[in-house]
Amino acid sequence: MDQILLNRSSSILNDTVDINNSAVKKTLLLYDYFIPMIGILIVITNLAVVLSSGLLLKKGQEPRSTYLYLGNVALTDFFTGIAVIFGQVFPIQYRDHYVCSLQIGMIVSSTLASVLSVGLIAIDRFLYIIHGLKYQQWVYPQRARLSIGFTWIVGGFIGFLPLMGWYGDTQNGKICWFILLAPKELVLLTVIIGIIPILVVIVLYLVILFHALKKIFQLQNLNKQSSNQQEEKINNLRMFRGNAKNKGTRTPPPKKGFSRVFKKAPLKSVNTPSKWKAIKVVLFTTGSFIGTWSPYFIVSLLYVYKCDFNTETKYCKNLRLLIASPLAILGFMNSFFNPIIYAWWHKGFRDFVKRRFKIFSKKEDSITKSTSQTISSKKNSMSSEIHLNVLN
């Protein structure tokens, strides 16, 4: 029975993509090998962020809304990893339309919730940086929880529409691809819902970047003015001293050699922020989703409006192959990048993880020391007993 199902699914897949081609086989194998590893990495990294965010919230760390949003992004990506692993390990003989709808629904709903949560983080950072005095009035934990619930409701509704009856043809779940499961209109709706928060992220982070660069240039100008004023005061002092001694003498030129090395340099600002750091933050935060999921959505739109399941042209088969393996892998990598970009770059979260790691390492050292001490004491007691027995 299993062999019949495998042969049937292979024939259906051959109609969809040319599996006799060696390049196509390698591309499909790439998905089978990489996706389980990526899924495990997604689950581990995002679970660590979820637990850490929970501990920070339990301790009352401020701002609470920011840690709620960070934890929610990690939670959505955690479910994406679970859905990816589920799709790979579920036995093929038990696959049908409902299992396929459940798997794709989990991936789409968690991905949309993740994208919407990234948009919420952008709004949160925008209000915190640009409107800091009114931040506590506009953003507070109760409102953050409601907005997080909204992301899950929207993502769950859109993602599980095929399970509710709005679906295409997956040959009863034998080829469980989003472009086959979802009708054209649902693919378009999913892409629109996913693009809106990305546009919000780009606009808000560009505004933040503009204000950050403006402040940096202002600080740099203030530093230049203060250094110029300081040099002018030193020159005036030198002129005053020179006139008191000899009005006709000129200020001696700066000394050369070793004396110039030990000459005290003018004071500079210690903590002048770097404009490149602000630019890098914006590039990574906006580029993460654009570089991972956007190619998948764009090619999916091209496919649903240029091809269908019965179209067997080379162009359509190539689009199916791109969507099935490399672009899907690239999209799932977003769930691995998110905890690194949004959690690790957050100073409060990073400091907390470092402190917990130090405490854990100290505990491990104390345990190893205590065990070594007990072992050495046991050895000493045993050697003393042997010595007494020999004497007796």
Automatic annotation (TrEMBL):
Keywords: Cell membrane, G-protein coupled receptor, Membrane, Receptor, Transducer, Transmembrane, Transmembrane helix. The chain crosses the membrane at residues 33-57, 69-90, 102-123, 144-167, 187-210, 281-303, 323-345. Residues 45-342 form the G-protein coupled receptors family 1 profile domain. GO terms for molecular function: G protein-coupled receptor activity. Gene3D superfamilies: Rhodopsin 7-helix transmembrane proteins (1.20.1070.10). It holds the Pfam family 7tm_1. PROSITE patterns: G_PROTEIN_RECEP_F1_1, G_PROTEIN_RECEP_F1_2. InterPro entries: GPCR_Rhodpsn, GPCR_Rhodpsn_7TM. One of its GO terms (cellular component) is plasma membrane. It is a multi-pass membrane protein. It is found in: Cell membrane. Belongs to the G-protein coupled receptor 1 family. This is G-protein coupled receptors family 1 profile domain-containing protein. The lineage of its organism: Eukaryota, Metazoa, Ecdysozoa, Arthropoda, Hexapoda.
